[in-house]
Amino acid sequence: MDEMLKKNGLSTWGQFQEKFINYVSNPELWTGLLFTVIKIVLIYIAARVIIKVAEKALHHMMMARDTGPIKFDARRSKTIGKLVGNIITYVVNFIMILMILSQFQVNLGPVLAGAGVVGLAIGFGAQSLVKDVIIGFFIIFEDQFAVGDVIQVGNYKGTVEEIGLRVTRLKSWTGEVHIIPNGTIVQVTNFSINNSLAVIDVSVSYETDIDFAMKILEDTVKTFYDTSVDMVKEPEVLGVHMMGATEITLRITAECKPNQQSGVARKLNAEIKKIFEANGIQIPYPRMITYHRTEKAES
Hints:
- By secondary structure, the chain is an alpha+beta fold.
- The chain has helices at 2-24, 27-67, 74-103, 108-125, 127-141, 210-227, 261-278, and strands at residues 150-153, 156-163, 167-171, 177-181, 188-190, 196-204, 236-243, 248-256.
- The strands form two sheets. The protein has a five-stranded antiparallel sheet. It has a three-stranded antiparallel sheet with strand order 6-8-7, covered by helices on one side.
- A hairpin with a 2-residue loop joins strand 1 and strand 2 (156-163).
- Helix 2 runs antiparallel to helix 3 and helix 6 (210-227) packs across helix 7 (261-278).
- The chain is elongated and about 125 Å long.
- It is found in: Cell membrane.
- The chain crosses the membrane at residues 29-51, 83-102, 108-130.
- This is Small conductance mechanosensitive channel.
- It is a multi-pass membrane protein.
- Belongs to the MscS (TC 1.A.23) family.
């Protein structure tokens, strides 16, 4: 009995080995596998080429809009261009995955139907994701901000690098990149929509001739305006803003291009310092005077 079971086992194993060897050594198997791999590689390459061509075409369309007779908002065009590029990438990659699955004889009908059911189930648990996408569309079409704008969202301030379907990327001036889900963007401060105002306060001593100091300031800001590309109109010397304990403060305002007020203020402060030194106008600052007293010893 044991010998018969042993023979049957060996016979079954031998049959399995024979079938396996015949299957592996079948030229049609390797030919079909080779063609499948080639098709998958070609599908992948075609998808990448389509995405690249679409990006190039989109870029040329945006450039044509910018150079055409009808002028469009460059900020808005750049933002919509990035969004359309993202949508094209997602759609092409999805079609590529379906085509690759079809090469493995996967029936796509049940897969798509199952994806619909699963998507419906996931939708109830992914409301935040849907919220991010919807708010992302509202941000773009309401033109709340665009790529290249300087904005502040909550505690984060920086330049908008990308507005995606789900998240917005901000790069701070110190280099950090903040990734903010669109659904969490409740309140936005945009520093790049309107012209900005540079406010420069200059202190002079009480001994200074105010009329002379203001005349020097008016000449200085006029010369500075003629050479500056960041101002939209000539700065205005408002006059005496405040009288402090040790100084008189003169105020200057300058309307600048969006988000350029800090740079203009720095350059104008440096120019005023040089002009004041050249004209003998003192800028008050704390000084320490030390008195040394010597006493003769009493006899």
